[in-house]
User: Fold this.
Amino acid sequence: MAKITINGKEIEVPQGKNLVDAAKDAGVDIPHYCYHPGLSIAGQCRMCLVELEGNPKLQIACNTKCSDGMKVHTNNEKVESAVQSSLEMHLINHPIDCPICDQAGECGLQNYYMQHGKYNSEMHEEKVHKEKVVDLGDHVVLDKERCILCSRCVRFTQEVSKTNDFGIFQRGDRSTIGTYGDAPLKGNYQLNTVDICPVGALTSKDFRFEQRVWFLDETDSICGGCSKGCNVSVHHKKGKHVYRLKPRTNEQVNGFWMCDKGRYTYKNSNYDKRLTHAQLGGVDLPHDEAIASWANDLKVLIATERPEEVGVFLTPHMTQEEIGSIVEHFAKTLGVTKFFSEDIEKLSKDDKDVDGLLLRSDHYPNSKGFLKLASSSKIKIQQVEDLVSALQKGSISHLILFVPEGDKILPAMTRIAQVTRPDLFVVAISPQSSAVELFPSALTLPSLSHYEKTGTVINHAGLEQKMAGGFKMFKESFSIQEIVEQLKVKSTESHQRERAAR
Amino acid sequence: MIKKTKHAGNMRPMAIEQKPLESEKRILLEHELVPDMNKIDVYASKGGYQALKKVLQGKMTPDQVIAEVKAANLRGRGGAGFPTGMKWGFVPKSDGKPHYLLCNADESEPGTFKDRVILEKLPHLMIEGMIIGAYAIGAARSYVYIRGEYTYAAEVINQAIQEAYRAGFLGKNVLGSGFDHDMAVHRGAGAYICGEETGLISSLEGKKGMPKLKPPFPAVEGYLKCPTVVNNVETLATVPWIINNGGAAYTKMGTAKSSGTKMWSVSGDVNRPGVYEVECGKPFRVLLEECCGGMKNGKKLKAVIPGGSSAPILTAEEAMNMTLDYESIASFGSMLGSGGMIILDETRDLVQVLKNLAEFYHDESCGQCTPCREGTGWIEKILHSFTEKEAKRDDVELLKKISANMMGRTICVLADSIAMPVESYIRKFPKEFENYLQKPKTLEMKQRVG
Assistant:
C-alpha cells in the first residue's frame, strides 16, 4: 500500500494503482476522455492533467502510477485552467449540435463543460468539417465531426474485440475516425464502442432518436442471453418501456463489456411481444377467473390423488426464487413428480466460451441454479421427449408450461404442441405470446419478462448474482412467485367454499 | 562521383564548395572537401575506422566507451541537447532483450540542413560512430532512419553500408572482436513528426508516426518494446573523434558546459548561407560576419531564429550579444536546438513569418493530443484572418492564451514548437503586430500581404 495525498487529503491506495482510478475511489473525479480502465493508456486527450508536487509541468493522471508520498493537486488554479483549456480545445471544432445529438445528457463534453467550462467561446474561425452519418453496419452510426479522437474505439477493436475495425486516418485536425475501406463493423461486440464513445460520434442504430436519456430510469440486472451472467443496467422509461441495456462494470464477470446479442434481449420486454392479459382459448378473461379455473382443474386431480397426471415444464430462464416457489408448491405441497425441461445437464456440461470473450454456448442465464435446486430438492427432471411420450400415452391430463421469453424455446414448444390433444388442460405461463400461440386452447397467464424480475441467478462459474428488477410494465403480468401464491389462495378459497356448501 | 539515381525528391547532392574558413573549427567536416570522401578507401586513408579499431581491437569495454563519451560531455545535436553518454548509460545491461541503436537522420526542422552534409559527404563518419555506439549499448542491429526527401543521401548511405560490410566493419564478428552488428537504412515517408524520437520508433515499427507516451523511455522500452537509443547524425559522427582523441581533448574545445564544436546551417538574408562548423562559445558575430559574409545587400539585421524554426526568436540586439553555446542562447530565452539558424533582415514581416511557421506546424501535427491537434489549426486560422481579413487586438491576446495553453501539455514537443514562436514573436516584436492593427487595409497593404 502507498500513502498519497490528493488535494490535502491523505488516502491509502495500492502501490502502482492508476491515479485516475485511485482518485475516483477517494471521491475525486479527475476528468478524462481517452482513459478507460479496460483499455491501454493513450494519454492524448490531456483532460486529466494534475499537479504532482515536485514536478514543474502538469502531468497526466492516466499515465501516473500511485507511489508512496505522492502529493497530487487536482483542483488548484493551475490545474483548473489547464483542464478548461483542454476542454476548450476539444470544443473548438466540435459542431455543438446537442439539440439533435443522441448523446446529449450523457455526453462527456456537456458534463465537463458544466463542471470545468462555462466560458464564452472565442472560436470565431470556420470550424473543420468532416463526414456525418457514416453507416458502420448493422448497429453503429458514426459522425466524424462530433468525434474528439480519443481513440477509445480504436483501442477497443484492437485490444478487446480484436476485430481491428477502427483506425485514425489523416493527421492533425484533419484526423478522422473510420473503418478500413469503409467496411462495416465486425463481430458481436460492436455496441461497446458506442458505450465507450464519450461523445455523440458513435451512436447505436437501435437507440438513436428513440428517447432522450434524461427520461430514462436505470435498473440493475443480469443479462438473460446466456450463462455468462453479464451485469447490465436496464434503461427504461418509468417502467413502461425498455429502451436499451448497458453493461455494468464487474471485473469478476464481464469487465466493462457485453455482447450485442445480449444487448438486444431487452426487446422481449416490450409491448409488441408481450402477453398482457390472461386468456382462455385466445379470449381475454379476468386474471382472477383464470387462476380460479386453473385451481379448479388442478384440485380435481389432487383430490382424487392423481398428482402423477400433472406435468410441469420449466426452464432455467427463471430466477432461483421462481424455481423455488414452483418446486415448493407443486412438488412438496401437491406431490407432483413429473417435471420436464430441456436437457439442462447436457447444456451446462457442454457450456463453453463461444468467442473467447463473453458469449457462452448455454443460452440460459440460470442453468447452474436450476440444477442446484433440482438436486437439493431431489426432483428428477425429465426431457422434452419424455414429455412427448407421456402426452402420447395420455398419462398426463394437466400440463403446466412455464414458457420463457425469446425464441430459443420455440422448437421444444412446437414439438410438445404437436402431440397435445385438444382435451388436455394446458396452462401456459409466459411473458410472451409467441410460444403460447402454439397452444390455441390453453389457459394463458402473463408473467414478468426477464428484466422486470427481482431475484437471483447463478452463472456458469457458480456465481450468485442479484437482479434488482422491481418495475412492472403491465398491470396483469405477475411474477411466478405471485402466480403460484394466487393459485394457492384460490385453491384454499374454493376448498373452503365447497366445505361450507357441504 | 556517385551516379545520380532517378529518384523523386532531392536527388542532387548538396553544392558546398566553401573552403574551410579561419573562424571555423572543423573536426567533423575536416575532410569534407576531399573528393570521393564517401568511399571507404578514401575515408580510411584519412584515418577513418581507426576509432572503431581502437574500440574493438584495443579491447575497450562498452563501459569504457560510454565513460569516454561522458568525459567528452557530448550533448545531443538533434535539438534537445541531452548528454549522449548519459543516454547510453540508461540502457539496461544484460536484460536478455535485443537492443537497438537508431540514427535519427530525419532532418526536417525548417532551417536545418546540417546533417545532410554528413549524410552525403561523410557517410562513413556517421556509420563508424554508429557501430561504436551500438557496441557501447550492446545493440546487434541499428537503423538509419532517413528523411524521405533525402533520396540522394539514402543512396550514399546504402552504398557506404555495403562497403562497410565488405570491409568487415559490419556483419558477423566485426574485426574479429566477436561483436556482431547489422545496419540498414529506413526511409521516412515525409512526416516531420517522425523526427521526434518516439515518433521515429513508431514509424520504424510500421505504425503511423505518432510519438509515444513517456514513461517508459526508449532506453528501457523503445523500438519493438526493447531498449533503444536514438541519436542524431551529427552526434554519432562526433563519436569517432572522441574515441581517437579522448573525451578530455573534446572538452578543451568550447565552453565548460557546451564542449566541442557545433555545425550550424545558416539560411536567410546573409551573403553566404551554408553549413559551418564552429567551436562552441564563439560569438554569434563570428558566424554571421566571418562565416556567412554578413547581411545580404547591406540590410540591417532584424531577428534571428537560432536553433531551427521552433526556437523562440531573438532580436538583433540579443543575437549580437549571444555566444554560440547552449547556455548563452538559453539565457536569452531561446535554444540552440538543431543549429538551424534563420537570419531575418529589416524588410521581413515577422507576422508573415509566423503565419508561415503556423501553417507548417498545423500541417505536421500528428493529431494525437488535443491541445496540439486543435491549437495548431486555431493559431493558423487566427493568423490568417489577422493578416488577410481583419486584424483585431483581441486576436493577439487570444494567440498568447492559446500558445500558453499548448506549452508543455502534450506527449511530444510539437505543440511547444509553435507555441514558443507565437509567444516570443508577440513578446519581442509587438510592433509587427501593431502595424496590422493600425494600418487600414490599403491596396498597397493588401498587395504586400497577399
In short: The mean pLDDT of chain A is 95. Chain A touches chain B through 35 residues (CB under 8 Å). The longest strand of chain A covers residues 231-237. The longest helix of chain A spans residues 480-501.
